[in-house]
Amino acid sequence: MTGRRLALIGVALLVAACVERLTAPGQCPDFCPSGQITIVDTLLTSSINRDSSYRGYVLAPEATLMLAAHIPGATDTLDSRPIFRINGYGGRLVLSATDTGAILGADSARLKLVVLRRDTATHNLRLQFYRLPITIDTSTTFGSVAGPFTDSLVRTVNIDTLLAQPGRKDPVTGDSVVSDDTVSHQLVVSLKLDSAAARYVPTDSGTVAYGIRVAADSLASLAIGEGTLGLALQWYLRVDSLGTTVARTPVSLGARFASFVFAPSPAPLDSTLAVGGVPSARSLLRVAFPKFISDSSQIIRGTLFLVPAVAARGAPADSFVIEARTVFADFGGKSPIDTRLGDTTVIHVGATDTVKIEVTNLLQLWAADSTHPRVFVLRPQAEAQFFGEIRFYPSLAAAFRPTLQVTFVRRFPFGVP
Amino acid sequence: MIQADRRTGGRAVGTAVLAAMLLTASPPDRLAAQDSQFGIRGLGTPGRWESVRSRSTGGAFAPFDPLSPLTEAPLADIGQLTATAVGGTSHRDVAVGGTTTALRATRFPLMGVAGPVRPRLAVAAGFTTYLDKSWDVTLRDSSLLRGVLQRYTDAITSDGSVADVRFAAAGRVSRRLAIGAALHVLAGSTRETAERRFDDTTFHTVQQSAEVRYDGLGVSGSVLLGLAPGLSIVGWARSDNRLRATVADTTSAMTDLPRMAGGGVLFAPSPGARFAASAAWRSWSNAGAGAFDTWSWSAGAEFGSRRMPIRLGARGGQFPFGPGTKAPTEAAGSIGTGRAFAQGRALIDVGLERLERRGGGLTERVWTVLVGLTVRP
């Protein structure tokens, strides 16, 4: 009797513990809910207006790398030359805890630089090193160092020849190259500079400055690292130690100043919407976001269409990424950018195709926060790290103005049988 | 004797505890009846206002059962305070378009308490499922978006029900005649979601949800007449006003609810055999397009002592919602038994029902296991 009772209780508990499974394939319309998800797609042709461009956000000395290029164009040649200054140890070197000695000069030096980006299709890539005045600074222009770049060549190295050497090391010159990343093709180039190329002048505190020109069989373009991936100069010094000349190899030195100078200067801003270049340019687009969309339940796709006014300029191998972001407040060119959300697209140099940027995230933010300024900022993702620049037709150009295509969902008719 | 009383009292308490556990173990939104795909396009799946005892007889005993909230008049004879609850698990095969899908659900469709307050007057309160609105539909389809055919998967779900909260009173007017009436408060909610996932992830997933609240009112009345010893008939009628659906305090739909009427006959030729039959009509077509008036019938029998009877029954009729111009049909057979404990103070009823619904090219076959607990403290 007790067993039967327990069995009954067990059945009761089993019933209570059963798992629900209600998912079934829909056979519409007969056995589906009457309400359907309604999607609307609309093209906003006149919602973007009051657009403008601004330049000067990131300057060459502020860039995180140095651009070297020699790219002949139809009307001119883009010529960009890295310049850098390495401060020395001064006139004396610490020999021991209690003793210093006068630096007499240098036997040689070794300069290490990291090529972060290059066109692997370019052949016979050559780096030419020039001695520059140690007075170079952020005000140095392409023209002000044109002379030294003509008559002060101290060293030339052929990267392709060096890469072809056994062990990637030239036994004659002492140069070497290491490819430390098969994905990004970064190169670590180590150059031996003799005493003529690396002159340690104690009266200048050992400060030296160099400039680099790049050349190749075809379009030459590369980027040289700064900071942690930057230049390093290892001096091999002769020091006076109580009347005896001794050799010393102090710690290597990094560049205290690194930048690049280039010509021609970027074309001045006009009515088009410029994005990219050096110094970097940004464009602001103000959007009259329709209430019927912001009040709709959900935006599932938004695409910004931009028509290039001219082909994107820059080094042909250097495709660059531009991003669309929004701002916290609309102060024109000084608007603080909201970096929480952004959408990007790749720009190929020379292309004139209409550029599409998926801006769904930004539109969803606008729909969720009615106080957020409805402003797009277009800027290069890596500012002043590419010469690439693109210019789009502004809203004034009626036939080619920026447009916004929005796909959104109407509110589902919940509760309707 | 005292020991026996203590033992039976202990059993009653234990059974009451078990009943309380089952009554409270489930959240209110699962207080629903057995679902049907036919109800997705309509208002939902109407509940069965029957205790396990009645349902095991095909529903034929429901008009005469004081613990089934179909009629009120039988409450007049309830005699003592009684609480009851029903739980059930259904396994449903849905066959349509050459595919069969196995579904499963557990529901607690009925709870109630009733008892006498005067020598000739009894009252009852409780709730049962008025409409079950739990379903989950997935759909593969495509549409032209931005000039490209985009494939997607929709998932539209509803989880919840509309409960019928009943406050009933019944009195015995004479030895042969009992009458009853009830007020029905319809209340409930569903959590509804609509989701669309595109194969092309450039389109973000559509996700919307809302809590839909429902309310309505109804009244009912019934008459139980004893024609002869062992022979009774019952008649009942009910009218509900409308079901109002609100989403975020805004009325999204107002649907007229049916009027209903029915009757039954109970014949007990001996203490060990009871037979019953009943029929009901419901004007569900008030609910609008895709809804139909329905007729339903049932016949059943109960054999053996009330301590451990055997029950069986059959029923047929129509389902109120479906595609096309004809109401889907449904037919069921059922069997069950029960067991009284603690000198009849606690009862466990179990039942098994096989149901088939057909209409519009869809066939549903359902096995339902039912367990009922009744406590008379």
Plain-language structure description:
The complex is a heterodimer of chains A (417) and B (377). Chain A is mostly beta strands and 417 residues long. Helices cover 9% and strands 43% of the residues of chain A. Chain A is built from five helices and 26 strands. Chain A has helices at residues 2-17, 148-151, 159-164, 291-294, 360-368; strands spanning 23-25, 39-44, 48-55, 65-72, 77-86, 92-94, 100-118, 126-131, 153-158, 176-179, 187-194, 208-215, 220-225, 232-241, 244-248, 253-254, 257-263, 273-276, 281-287, 298-306, 320-327, 337-347, 355-358, 375-380, 389-392, 403-409. In chain A, strands 4, 5, 6, 7, 8, 9, 10, 11, 12, 13, 14, 15, 16 and 17 form a 14-stranded antiparallel sheet that branches. In chain A, strands 3-19-24-21-22 form a five-stranded antiparallel sheet, covered by helices on one side. The longest helix of chain A has 16 residues, at 2-17. Chain B has two helices and 18 strands. Chain B has helices at 2-24, 52-56, and strands at residues 45-46, 82-96, 99-118, 121-132, 135-145, 148-172, 177-198, 206-228, 231-240, 242-247, 250-256, 259-270, 273-282, 294-303, 310-318, 329-341, 346-359, 362-375. Chain B is mainly beta and 377 residues long. The chains are: A mainly beta (417), B mainly beta (377). Strand 1 (23-25) of chain A pairs parallel with strand 5 of chain B, so a sheet runs across the interface.
